[in-house]
Amino acid sequence: MSLSSETVRIAIVGGGVAGLSTAYYLQKHCPGPLSIDIFEKKAALGGNAETVLVDLGDRVDADGPNRAYLRWADLGVNDVNLATYHLLKQVMDDIGYLQNMKPLQDTTSYFSGDGSLALTDDSALTTGVTDPRFSVAGADDGLLGLLIAVVHRAAIDLLPDITPDYTVGEFFQRCIETPQQMLAAAALQLKVHVDWSDPALPPCLQRVRDDIYYPRISAMYFADERGPQVMPLLAPFEYYQLQEGGVAPDRRYFDMGAQTWLEALASWLTAGHRRDAAVRLHTDAAVHVTVNPGQVTLAREGLPDATFDLCVMATHADDAARIVAFGDGVAAAGAQLRQVLESIDYTFGYAVCHTYDGVMPPSRNIWRTYNVLKRSRADSVFPYRMSYVCPLHQNDPVNPPYNQAGLPQFFVSLVDDLNRIPVDTMLDRVQGTGRVHPRLFAALPRATQRSLQHEAVRGGYHPAEYGRAHPMGSRLAGKAWTMFKHNVLDAACYRAQHAIAAYNQATAVAFSSAGKVQCPLLFAGGWTNGAGLQEQCLQQSRQLVMWLGMASEATEPAADTGSAVA
């Protein structure tokens, strides 16, 4: 089958950023003709993206009668770094969404529940108050901040030369035992002086590990619950390089929620920019996929089966393993792929919007956008935990309507157990539109709008699908919470990423050459590339299209005005 003369029918399973961006790059770069169908099992787009509206009471001021004080919050994906997210920035600019990315207040606190650790990193603070008594930069007479920078640089410099078997624990132990050997080159790069004979050096390096990096790594969504010391050094530091890197990091949040970005991309895709590369989006569309030689069949309950030339699984690995079956003609390839998919481990957690300050630093003076808890030495497992101060994440100090004393604080916490947040402090999702100002309603994601209008819009993940008991039962009805999941970025995951990249490349190149391939299945999604950050999902999507040989800078889309939303 020739890619340039016959219509290629492509199915994309998964309506998150990976699936949508795969369709985007196909539509932008493939000379076609194409027919692209995206299938999302939920009514809302984005697996780990969910935007809620919560009610914090009535606002009383001199401007008029009391009015509802409603705020939105993201329960999941909530920010990016435009200094390093080059593909994301380019796509957002192309579809007219970039102006919706607003600067957040990029500050962090490190704390322990007993108050013995209380440090803040305000190095990127632009509007607000910083207290030198708690500054990381000034701790230990300035040595702690200096060593954090040197250790960080040394780890980043190692990334090209290490394998996933080189662990975080091994790196820090070597830094503590042989600091000059491990860190001198980084100190030279940074042009800082370190007295390698200083007896304060080893204990301060232990503090860099125990008070800063181990808590930070345990607060990552892809963390290994066995503890940060067993994780590949690649995992956190590749993440840092992208999410927090750049000469001047440019951390942004999605104004009115991350789902507005996914909905904007979906609208652009289905707006009919290419009459020869139509994209149709099917939501509430759970599918089962059967792969046979040269074709893929998608089955949906109550609808006729649909056959495609190529299918891209832009889902989690465990979901792909559950819904894909392989026919006799591709059984051997299927067994190998299933082995890769089943090698990926997953963790589950909960995001909840609340007002409980028991998960925050004991001192309100060090509450920051990101609040990182140092775990107890008695802990045997280290599940993902993190708490955000939403008014700081949404940068209230530079937003006049919210930059006022007396407005309530509210948080989003990512926890392994919802019992960590008292139910009476969990905020309620707004029900109905009676208290919602029309301007606020119009700015919200469509999925949130539909929820307010009492539609059953399913977002996030549901415990029963994964054999997990529903937490707390009916007590959570109407509360602002969701379940999320993510793969563990361990050495096994890196090996699976390497294997699936080799498979994707061989399959895509063969399909491009012949227009048909024995096992016409490709894989995208967060588990296939690094930590699954949005930029990494776009990198993977773009790479698939490049391997397919569909890139053509000379291709100009044919204009059309039709819509194709199913």
Report on this structure.
This protein is of the alpha/beta class. The chain is 31% helix and 19% strand. It has helices at 17-29, 86-95, 143-158, 168-177, 179-190, 201-218, 234-243, 258-269, 317-323, 331-341, 390-393, 438-443, 446-452, 491-514, 534-547, and strands spanning 8-13, 34-39, 51-61, 64-74, 79-81, 101-103, 108-111, 118-121, 251-254, 277-282, 288-292, 295-299, 306-308, 310-313, 324-326, 346-354, 370-373, 386-389, 411-415, 481-487, 521-523. The strands form five sheets. It has a seven-stranded mixed beta sheet. Strands 10-2-1-14-21 form a five-stranded parallel beta sheet. It has a four-stranded mixed beta sheet with strand order 13-12-11-15. A hairpin with a 6-residue loop joins strand 7 (108-111) and strand 8 (118-121). The protein is globular. The two termini are 27 Å apart. It holds the Pfam family NAD_binding_8.
What form results from the Cα inertia axes? globular
Q: Describe the largest sheet.
A: 7 strands, mixed
In round numbers, the mean pLDDT is 90
Approximate strand percentage: 15-25%
What's the Cα radius of gyration? Answer: 24 Å
**First and last CA, distance:** 27 Å
The strand line-up of the biggest sheet is: 8-7-17-18-19-16-20
Relative helix content: 25-40%
Number of strands: 21
Please report the number of helical segments.
Answer: 15
Question: Stretches where pLDDT falls below 50 for ≥5 residues?
Answer: 551-566
Find the structural class using helix and strand composition: alpha/beta
